[in-house]
Design brief:
Layout: H1 8-13, H2 34-43, H3 46-51, H4 53-66, E1 72-73, H5 80-87, E2 89-92, E3 96-99, H6 106-111, H7 122-135, E4 141-146, H8 148-157, H9 165-173, H10 175-198, E5 203-208, H11 216-233, E6 237-238, E7 241-242, E8 245-249, H12 256-260, E9 266-268, H13 275-282, E10 287-292, H14 301-315, E11 321-325, H15 335-349
Parallel strand pairs: 1-4, 4-5, 5-8, 8-9, 9-10, 10-11
Antiparallel strand pairs: 2-3, 6-7
Helix pairs in contact: 2-4, 4-7, 8-10, 9-10, 10-11, 13-14, 14-15
The chain binds coproporphyrinogen III.
């Protein structure tokens, strides 16, 4: 067990005192960085990059060499689980993820097996091990997974969707089939995340990227209960420390109180909520991560700094805030603007932790 040299990210998630607000960026290893594009070209395609532990480790570390980040995130994808279930994931340039086979009927869903994380997903565990070793205790490593609902959208639709027509049709006409799929996914995610912890992940995040597409009632039927099942099934301690769990429903601002009741440690916020209001609503129950609109990074460094100051002021004094973007960094952002963002958080957040 290596002592962490910088643990302010873990401390903030547990609302323990910190010297300044920690920061990391969703999709911090990605196409906005020229060194990422070079390593990806070397790997061939995106999934080959995920499956090569040395190269996945290299791209995980790239943003940490440039910026004062307080956490590393495993380089992988949420769609590894459906791929391991046999759906055949592939990426077509400019079109996002696609599956060769869909899970769009009771018959197809009944056939799906729960993947063994050390076997079909062994490449992810190799990456976790390699990254944890190469981080040398500098900052904690975040492991992650998609939420069952979000994974199911890709599996039923066969790829990305704007309307979620097929899965919503299933939700209202064949709810038993969808519940079976979500339940199998929750079981798969529990095994997968616990294996990530066993292999070295020090914190976990669940991406419910499409929970916000659901109605008020449907969110409580198809997304939240399965995240609850996951939270209940996770390993919460490793290496003598608590492993904090963050739930992020994009577009989930209306449901923060309900999410905070799951027993998770933190909630991710997109940019549609005011972080100070969110803090008042969830009280002492959970920490908050977020919530700058990634598009602000298209603005000037001065504009970025102004936005950072306003979010810090809205959260106010004390621990429990992990600074982040409200969603992944866009591919056409200037890496110097990402630097201005991170440097502003480092520069202005100390005053809230006196
Ligand atoms: C919905 C979702 C996916 N993947 C993920 C989510 C949840 C978060 C979110 O809401 O954005 C999660 C994800 N994907 C990736 C990470 C790596 C860690 C990080 O730096 O945050 C994480 C945490 C790498 C990636 N995952 C992907 C890339 C780009 C692939 C490339 O190099 O071409 C990266 C860096 C591919 C991917 N994978 C997925 C999409 C929609 C895409 C983009 C397709 C495109 O824009 O062409 C599914």
């Amino acid at each position: 067990m290596t002592e962490l040299k910088n643990d302010r990210y873990l401390r903030a998630l547990l609302k323990q005192p910190v010297d300044r607000t920690p920061i990391w960026m969703m999709r911090q290893a990605g196409r906005y960085l020229p060194e990422y594009r070079a390593t990806r070209a070397q790997a061939g395609d995106f999934m080959s990059l995920c499956k090569n532990a040395e190269l996945a480790c290299e791209v995980t570390l790239q943003p940490l060499r440039r910026y004062d980040l307080d956490a590393a995130i495993l380089f992988s994808d949420i769609l590894t689980i459906p791929d391991a279930m046999g759906l055949g994931l592939y990426f077509e340039t400019g079109e996002g993820p696609k599956f060769e086979r869909k899970a769009d009927s009771m018959a197809a869903i009944e056939k799906l097996a729960i993947p063994d994380p050390e076997d079909e997903l062994g490449y992810v565990m190799n990456a976790v091990n390699t990254i944890r070793r190469e981080l040398k205790g500098e900052v904690p490593l975040i492991g992650f997974s998609g939420s069952p609902w979000t994974l199911a959208t890709y599996m039923v639709e066969g790829g990305s969707s704007k309307t979620f027509e097929k899965i919503k049709k299933m939700a209202y006409s064949e709810p038993k089939a969808l519940h079976l799929l979500l339940d199998k996914l929750a079981d798969s995610v529990i095994l997968y995340l616990n294996a990530q912890v066993a292999n070295g992940a020090q914190s976990l995040m669940i991406f419910d990227s499409w929970g916000g597409a659901l109605s008020h009632n449907a969110y409580r039927e198809f997304s939240l209960p399965y995240m609850q099942k996951i939270v209940d099934g996770l390993t919460r301690h490793a290496d003598g420390r608590q492993v904090p769990v963050t739930l992020f429903t994009k577009g989930g601002g209306l449901w923060l109180e309900a999410m905070a009741e799951t027993g998770c440690d933190a909630l991710g916020l997109d940019w549609t909520v005011d972080i100070g209001d969110a803090r008042r609503r969830v009280g002492e129950k959970v920490a908050l991560q977020g919530n700058m609109d990634p598009s602000v990074l298209y603005g000037t460094p001065e504009r970025i700094e102004q936005e950072v100051k306003s979010i810090l002021a809205s959260y106010g004094n004390g621990s429990g805030h992990v600074f982040n973007l409200g969603h992944g960094i866009h591919q056409h952002v200037d890496p110097e603007h990402a630097k201005a963002f991170i440097d502003s958080v480092v520069k202005h957040s100390g005053q809230y932790h006196k």
